[in-house]
Amino acid sequence: MSDGFILSVMGESEIETFEVQLKNKRMSSQVHDTIEDQVNWLGSILDVGADKNLTQAQKENIAYIAESFVLDNLKSEFKSYVLLLVLREKWPVGQKSKFKIRADKVGANHTYITHICEPQLIGPSPDEKDLKKAEDSSLASQLSFLKKNKKRFANSSAIHEFIRQHR
């Protein structure tokens, strides 16, 4: 495992990219206690982030939550680029109140599902083109998983459009 990697966090309408140094753990100013609340807050911020400019504190919290989640859950070898998807969850009929309560705890309109895409190799000091290529490769590597699990994602989720484009 190397001493760092580039992590992109992709929500419904926003993507944030930052460098993770494994030896320098980031500290967060306002992070919710449970993983579920953290994921729902993260999804909510990335869902509405395109509508407003994110503050530096919000970006630091996004980095902290995403970094912690990936470091705790990535089972394969770290390469130099990792993409974390945070997408809207479908609320089954008859169980909406349970999901709504979980979303309301952090001020979100939906609950969210996370998925770590297959890590990709990327050259040192990558530019925008290199990052976009790694992002596309990460998404392409997960197309069969996304198709297989598309019923887990809300009908309004951007993943349905992505699947439609890659039939």
Give the number of DSSP strands. 4
Number of helical regions:
6
Instruction: Specify the helix fraction band.
Output: 40-55%
Side by side, the strands of the main sheet go: 2-1-3-4
Describe the structure.
This protein has helices at 35-48, 56-73, 96-104, 128-141, 143-148, 158-165, and strands at 4-10, 15-21, 81-88, 112-116. It is globular and about 50 Å long. The mean pLDDT is 84. It has six helices and four strands. Strands 2-1-3-4 form a four-stranded mixed sheet, sandwiched between helices. Helix 1 packs across helix 2 (56-73). With 167 residues, it is of the alpha+beta class.
What are the SSEs and their pairings?
Layout: E1 4-10, E2 15-21, H1 35-48, H2 56-73, E3 81-88, H3 96-104, E4 112-116, H4 128-141, H5 143-148, H6 158-165
Parallel strand pairs: 1-3
Antiparallel strand pairs: 1-2, 3-4
Helix pairs in contact: 1-2
Descriptors:
4 strands
Describe this structure in a few short sentences:
This protein is of the alpha+beta class and 167 residues long. The chain has helices at 35-48, 56-73, 96-104, 128-141, 143-148, 158-165; strands spanning 4-10, 15-21, 81-88, 112-116.
